[in-house]
Amino acid sequence: MPQFLDTRDADFEPRFRALLAAKREDSPDVDAVVAGIIDDVRNRGDAAVLELTEKFDRVTLTPETLRFSSDEIAAECAKVAPEDKAALDLAAERIRAYHVRQMPQDARWTDPDGAELGWRWTAVSAAGLYVPGGLASYPSSVLMNAIPAKVAGVERLAITVPTPDGAVNPLVLYAAHTAGVDEIYRIGGAQAVAALAYGTDTIAPVDKITGPGNAFVAAAKRRVFGKVGIDMIAGPSEILVIADGDNDPDWIALDLMSQAEHDESAQSILITTDAEFGKAVAQAVEKRLETLERRAIAGASWRDFGAIVTVASLDEAVALSDRIAPEHLELCVADPDALSDRIRHAGAIFIGQWTPEAIGDYVGGPNHVLPTARSARFSSGLSVMDFLKRTTLAKMTPDALRAIGPAAERLAASESLEAHGLSVTARLERLNR
Amino acid sequence: MPQFLDTRDADFEPRFRALLAAKREDSPDVDAVVAGIIDDVRNRGDAAVLELTEKFDRVTLTPETLRFSSDEIAAECAKVAPEDKAALDLAAERIRAYHVRQMPQDARWTDPDGAELGWRWTAVSAAGLYVPGGLASYPSSVLMNAIPAKVAGVERLAITVPTPDGAVNPLVLYAAHTAGVDEIYRIGGAQAVAALAYGTDTIAPVDKITGPGNAFVAAAKRRVFGKVGIDMIAGPSEILVIADGDNDPDWIALDLMSQAEHDESAQSILITTDAEFGKAVAQAVEKRLETLERRAIAGASWRDFGAIVTVASLDEAVALSDRIAPEHLELCVADPDALSDRIRHAGAIFIGQWTPEAIGDYVGGPNHVLPTARSARFSSGLSVMDFLKRTTLAKMTPDALRAIGPAAERLAASESLEAHGLSVTARLERLNR
Description:
Two copies of one chain form a homodimer.
Chain A: E1 3-6, H1 12-21, H2 31-44, H3 46-57, H4 70-78, H5 82-100, E2 107-110, E3 116-123, E4 126-130, H6 139-152, E5 156-160, H7 170-179, E6 183-185, H8 189-198, E7 208-210, H9 215-224, E8 229-230, E9 238-243, H10 249-260, E10 267-272, H11 275-291, H12 295-305, E11 307-310, H13 314-324, E12 328-332, H14 336-342, E13 348-351, H15 357-362, E14 388-395, H16 398-414, H17 418-432
Parallel strand pairs in A: 1-11, 4-5, 4-7, 5-6, 7-8, 9-10, 9-12, 10-11, 12-13
Antiparallel strand pairs in A: 2-3, 3-14
Helix pairs in contact in A: 2-3, 2-8, 2-9, 3-8, 4-7, 5-6, 5-7, 6-7, 8-9, 10-11, 10-12, 11-12, 16-17
């Protein structure tokens, strides 16, 4: 059973704080190992990548077979059932339609001093997408990472996906193909991140690396940050549902379990204005846990990190939700739009009872790569912005320089940066001649 | 003297590569020390901060004197010369006017399936701004960090600025006051970053930390990344000037020196279509280096990392510039706007000979916190976006769920995530009853 909290209980605040602070993830200290792997790949390139792939994935490759050929991709895609293809195509289309709207505008204007100012957005030239192998090899994540990159205008998009013992997920290759991925390499782990960041003879380096991975991948991304851009370091998944008593307990139970089944470290929380409804949801979860395929995982997550919090009002729910800053927030109340408008810190909001969070994982359109572990306080889900960068523009006319140059001279002097000041002075002297 | 390169030389490519790869910064390995400091501040809070401040800054503080009082701020501001105040006010006004235009739009629409989709931007609640003490304590940087935060809507903006041996820069306090900073603490180093990230009894934790600092500050920011958001890890400054022969060599020399004088690790590069002009600029630099106050620093930077590259055409200049991905790019050519449009990777572009880079450091309006060390390939300068985050929104109607729910069920099954699928199935069953 999960924890039951009630804001009217005397010990609510310490218990809620403990819930917020719960360390859900063991972070094994793999940093030294990863540093060694990265150095090895930097020094020996393909040879290191091939050896490490043999060691960790038990797959023997050559520089020629590191990359899936177009024939191999076509052969794998042919194994995908038409219904799966149709579902992935629908998802891709909806994700693309959503992300196209995110494209930011360039700007250019002349200000009252006559200075022309503005900015211009351009795409990253090359991006690498890490795709996990094995259990967590999700084709939906390929779409969610690759489509924003391609919408942004990234010309070269490379995927690395390990094939432990030679296992390939055809749906991952189909998703990559559908999303317009240009290169697919059968490597994984820190060695894949290192190869993408620094390049080898076979794999050209990229400018940005995104995508989820295990502790080795996360540590490697953290290490190459600066050499290349990275997306967030994702933690275990979370859902917060705010529900009144006028909901089907089983629906809410399934929504909670849809995060819990990801990972024993996942966290599912229900905040409700109706204590009896909270109990009914707990019972519905227990019933579902009798039969769910992933009941061992979902049950452990729910037992260790699940919580049902009873609040006196939706005002309290809003305040607690912003303290949690959930990755996924589902609002199942009478006026979910009004409640949504009051929420400040959340990765994604699912508005109303007809919007189960799982819709967002696949076909809603918004990205499912979202900030975890309270980082929605300061960061956003993946978007086209992750694959774009902005160049600021400034153009002075002689008049503009006359107007604002003297202030720059003054500030340069105050910061003891003489050449800064002189670069303005020399031009103003010409104008004043 | 700097290096002279010419694209027509046989050894150009290896020499240009060496220039790109030059390791300009010694990164002392302070990570272990910083880890210890962060743990100490997490465990002992104010007591650790006070001890470390006494040790590193030789200043004895108490929890009551950690923060500048409003009387102290007013007294420091009163020391600032009216001309400096006017210059900082002008800079603040122009920076504000530029950054207000960056505010992104919320969006909400209904798609053909009846799904309501959108996103909403909200500000980070609390941000911390690190300001270095001593030589690199620049009031302009206070404006460049604080104004975007306030324009974004950050309610609580805290600054930390060390006061080694008690030294305070009144202009920094005036800039902070002008920019609307809410709290100013006289601490620095890794201990300041730790206090901002984790909080102490006196300093409430923030959600995002920005601002430049030394190796200890950079290592601390890297370590607290995830617990809070951080901006980029800035490296030494850089400028690339692309100039034809129709320029005043002394102006270009001063522009090159305005970066070189920052730091011995700074890098100033001229690309020119006119080899004779390149030589004239080199001579003008030597002349200026005879008298510049910071000639020791500027001279070392120019000697060790400066370069003058002669190209056969502006096409070549564009290609080399994008490989450099400069922090600052100045275009002093006949049609600088046309050239600007062709540049893809640059932090900021200064268009035309009347736009010395120093204008952008102070009063242009765009931010002067810009990506260094070739990171303009994948990242942007500081902006209001650094203090905002986006929440995605999705709302299904029964009809929308009927239309796209089955694809979600199919994909959930393909990823063996049964509860995901059932959360959709349960709702579709109700609709189909």
